[in-house]
Amino acid sequence: GEIQRISLAIALSCKPEVLLLDEPTSALDPTTCLLVEESLKEYACIWVTHDPEQEKRVSTHKFVLNPHLERDEQTLVRI
């Protein structure tokens, strides 16, 4: 988890317009995970997660690659 936090801090220090996050909280404890999620809300993020509960907490729009997963038509991005 420490390497993930350091990598995220380095990325944020560059003041990016968009963050591409691949399972950024997978090695974090639940409390730290929630803190990271909350701190990233002010950024535009493309966030890869396998955790449906996390997806609900952090997303405003979603793109689902697995057609067998439940889809929320209000937030599903169509391409």
UniProtKB/TrEMBL annotation:
<dbReference type="InterPro" id="IPR003439">
    <property type="entry name" value="ABC_transporter-like_ATP-bd"/>
</dbReference>
<dbReference type="GO" id="GO:0016887">
    <property type="term" value="F:ATP hydrolysis activity"/>
</dbReference>
<dbReference type="Pfam" id="PF00005">
    <property type="entry name" value="ABC_tran"/>
</dbReference>
<dbReference type="GO" id="GO:0005524">
    <property type="term" value="F:ATP binding"/>
</dbReference>
<feature type="domain" description="ABC transporter">
    <location>
        <begin position="1"/>
        <end position="26"/>
    </location>
</feature>
<dbReference type="InterPro" id="IPR027417">
    <property type="entry name" value="P-loop_NTPase"/>
</dbReference>
<protein>
    <submittedName>
        <fullName>970_t:CDS:1</fullName>
    </submittedName>
</protein>
